Amino acid sequence: MSRPLRIALVCGRALPVSLYGGTERVVEWLARELLRRGHAVTLVGPKGTYLPGVRVVMASDAVSAAANLPADIDIVHAHGWTGARFAVPSLWTMHGNAPGYGFEGNWNFISADHAARHGRRTFVYNGIPPEDVYFSAEKSDRHLFFSRINRAGKNVTQAIDLARRFKLKLDLAGGARIELLTRSAVRREGVFFRSFGEQFRFHGMVGGWEKARLFAQARSLLFPIRWDEPFGLVVIEALLAGTPVIAAARGAVPELLTPEVGFLCESTDDYGRAFAEVGAIDPARCRDYAASNFSAAQMAEGYLALYRRILDGETLD
After folding, report:
1. In a shared domain, residues 156 and 12
2. Global confidence as pTM
3. Which pLDDT does position 99 carry in this prediction?
């Protein structure tokens, strides 16, 4: 058996987060899983960072992250401050889209599509601890949009327009209705004025039980993105809650969904068929599929394999 590793996880925002923060939540889940497997974890991050069982080293930027790194670390895994250069073997995970960035050294991406779009091949899927997600087999008649509503790429505009066309009841979480009027493509599309009516409920920024309830009770998660999603953590959260996903076939999403747990849509007619058929999907099948393919345990296994390859002298492609 390989010896336990001393791993430094670098994150540019304080952990844990209470509401939103996809990258930060992934780092937390990875740290917990590495600890469970007997590895020593050091978390390098800004003031306020704390996770039980983890040694914390404070840093405020890439320079201090590298300067403050303890001498006993075997490998660094950076999820932020990607400009930092460390004196020990290192892995960087890109969580966003950065076309044209010069990826020198050992870089990892979070889906096959994400890696390919950046001219690379190495990827590890994000993973969620299934026990962290509340499951319900009982569904309401309300669909759910759960993304930052003022981010044009998440496409709240189409979500609202689809709900109006197909007479759907739609819950929206990820910002207040007034944010549809902020300076963005969303404002220019005039969707604010189409978002009124009894069928729409805006929940603002939610976490905790309110978030768990929305996911678990939804008839479907509506995810009509219009950008190339690097992964789509919300898709896996919904599936673990037993909620099927109706999504645009963009970015990594086709890697995450099968016909047994959701629908990939390219046209308004595709969405219409999905809304008509989504009730036939088994919630238990959704959870089992996500737990079997996108768990925090599988994510940790993937990263540990990359750590070993790097420590053996390999350069990732």
Report:
1. no
2. 0.95
3. 84
